[in-house]
Amino acid sequence: MSIPVEPSVYSKDRPFPSKLRENRMLNRPGSAKETRHLVLNLLGSGLSYKAGDSLGVFPSNRSEEVEELLERLGVTGDEPVLPQALKLPSAISLREALTSRLSLAKPTRKIVETLSAKATNADERAKLAGLLATEAKEVLAEFLENREFVDLLAEFPSARFTPQEFVDHLRKLMPRLYSIASSSRRFPSEVHLTVAVVRYETNHRKRFGVCSTFLADRAAVGTTPVPIFVSDSHFGPPEDGAKDCIMIGPGTGVAPFRAFMQERVATGATGRNWLFFGDQKHATDFLYEEEWQQYLASAQLTRLDTAFSRDQSNKVYVQDRMRESGAEVWAWLKGGAHFYVCGDAKRMAKDVDLALLEIVAQHGGMSPEQASDYVKKLKKEQRYQRDVY
Question: Cβ neighbours of residue 66 under 8 Å, at least 6 residues apart?
Fold first, then answer.
């Protein structure tokens, strides 16, 4: 008789204060990317996860940005505030609100309207009036797209806010979800993530992805609490271990498939595994290359097709590799294989979907309409699953 597992006391509403066990760079020197392998401790949490689940992480904002905001507001940070977005029972300090409770990015039209009402400088008032003009919707959208709240305080210093007025313009700082890159069967006391660290520049200011740089830069291994929770997912390897898996995971989209492979090896799944992986350069961006080669050598990974877009003059992507092996992809699907896609929703997932439709039509001898119906059936049967963002 199996012993029921007690549910963890930790959840999204009460995240577990984990600590990093490991933080290592996956890209090699010379890469244009910064992708990190992060290991978080689960000991004492009671949390459990399945291959395919996601991990929620509550980040903190950069102290440098918080300090600049306090300076531009002309306050100490000790002022009590009750931000509208948080619905708190009692006040917290402005510093706490800006550090770990509120988002400092994505300003909206509302703050521009408030600035316009508060600005005392004539030039500032004229610029704000221009941004709020009826015909300037696109200009305002572009203006806001390139700015965070700190930029607005810097550009319109004559507009003075009380701490409460300022925080009422800010949204709640939301947790970020990352596909889990490990199987709990192999790593029961820890959880692995594959995180692309976001750094860029807009409006002549360096910007930092809040959660990715929190994990990469600000969470010290072994000391800084990292509030986490497990987010249950529909996404996961076939329940029947005899079924084949085709996995399309370029870049950090490969994360759940690392978990799938660990899970299928641990459970003795007999189905074949085929991974399509893509990134910029083989020499610097082949994430977890040694692990995939080991799986290949042991025949636990049946096929590995790679697409490194910048290793040749014409760019090659995972969907191109799919088309090149279209007959085999169709043979696997016809034999009952499950098809998985993880990664960028805007372009990659759409391009892969289109390639799949073409493969089914061409090699299955179907019309476009029949191919579309076939792919819909795969989705309905949970044999075509996507984890896209």
Answer: 77, 95, 98, 99, 104
Domains of the chain, with CATH numbers? Answer: 16-59+175-231 (2.40.30.10), 63-167 (1.20.990.10), 245-388 (3.40.50.80)
Record the pTM: 0.94
Maximum Cα–Cα distance for the chain, whole Å?
78
What dihedral do alpha carbons 133, 134, 139, 141 form, nearest 10°? 110
CA distance 224 to 310: 37
Q: What is d(CA 275, CA 202) in angstroms, rounded to the nearest whole number?
A: 36
pLDDT, position 116:
97
pLDDT number for residue 7: 73
Q: What is the pLDDT of residue 1?
A: 42
The answer to whether the beta carbons of residues 248 and 352 sit under 8 Å apart is: yes
Give the whole-angstrom CA distance, residue 332 versus residue 116: 62
pLDDT of residue 8: 84
